[in-house]
Amino acid sequence: MALVRIGDTELDVERSGREDGPPLLLIMGMSGTALHWGDPFLDELRRDFDVIAFDHRGVGASTHLVGEISIADMASDAAALLAALGIDSAHVLGISMGGMIAQELALGWPERVRTLTLGCTYCGGPGGELSAPEVLQKLSAAMMSGDRERAFRTGWEVNVSPAFAANDEAWRRFRAVGEERAVAVPVVLAQLRACAAHDTHDRLGELAMPTLVIHGTLDQMLPVGNGHTIAALIDSSQLEILEGIGHLFFWELPEHSAELLRAHAAVSA
Prior knowledge:
By secondary structure, this protein is an alpha/beta fold. The protein has helices at 39-46, 71-84, 97-108, 133-144, 148-159, 162-165, 168-180, 185-197, 225-233, 249-252, 254-266; strands spanning 2-6, 9-17, 23-27, 50-55, 90-95, 113-119, 211-216, 237-242.
């Protein structure tokens, strides 16, 4: 990865895949890093796209986060990153908190977004539903316990379906990612507050670019009703519901998820 300066901030960026392919900006969710996209999904995307993944402020080698941050701030970072890389417009995939950032990016800088894909995310307002209190309590207790193994395992279990949680090989990969690049608890809490304040509900109707909304039916972090709500608000959207799949759909279905992205990008070709 390499540091890219945007104003007073530096973001740690990985660019891979086809140099002659269309740019695809990946915007990660809360407590995640560029590594959390997972090699199976990234390898599929690299066949067709110039893939750009980065770490948010406060994550990895990116500039240290001081104080609070908003979803709009992170969208501004994403727009500035594209400009710094000399990319006029890109296909954009945002998942979870990254999907909230992608919404603000598409609303504030529509010329930068060729197609928009919103995965397992939330828009606030009527019909918006954040994590259930019991899920947040389970995650919080694990994070604050000081037991790293418990924190990793709890994060895994609430982010994937029960069937996939039993996949030992995938669990080992997920744990290794967390060990390699941990996100500090104060940063996660600042991101959590940013998510709670996010509300694009009344503005999503302004979006005109082709939009794909993806959501798993067993998502514990942001229930599937959010996908239905977002798709109903965007006239140009297509809704893809994944039966029996959890929050990290691209871990559970990397090949299918990449194929959805390829087909969606083709509509703007």
